[in-house]
Amino acid sequence: MSRSLKKNPFIEPKLLKKMSKVRPGEGKPIKTWSRDSTVSPEMVGFSFDVHNGRTFTTVKIVEEMVGHKLGEFAATRKFLRHGGRMAKEQEAAAAEAEKAKAQAATAKPEEGKK
Fold it and tell me: What is the pTM assigned to this prediction?
């Protein structure tokens, strides 16, 4: 749910203070835990280290990110994959088909030389 328009977007005051000390595009990213801060047009060009609960994820701010929250760009969960036995069987079959295709491709040039 978005913040009320009469309240204006939330940006952590400490974050604004840190931004005033650094120039956009400078080497070192600004470290922050404020995932709920809204990306403003003044932030474009800066890079932030956004905390995801475990580590910091470097986020380079571009124009398309304006209006979104910093936390949207630092995922908190790691997706491994869906499935179980059935997914593993399908994956193995696909790998086997790929291997057979590669062997067939390498065998054709040798036959042409004979």
Answer: 0.66
pLDDT in tens, 79-105: 887 778 888 888 899 999 999 998 888
87 in a structural domain: no
In whole angstroms, what is the distance from residue 70 CA to residue 36 CA? 6
Closest CA relative to residue 59, chosen from 19, 30, 34, 22: 30
CB atoms within 10 A of CB 25: 9
Dist. CA 111–CA 113, nearest whole Å: 5
Q: What is the 3-state secondary structure (H, E, C) of 13-39?
A: HHHHHHHHHCCCCCCCCEEECCCCCEC
The answer as to whether 61 is a domain residue is yes
Is there a domain that residue 105 lies in?
Answer: no
- DSSP, res 2: P
3-class state of residue 82 by DSSP: coil
**For residue 3, is pLDDT > 90?**
no
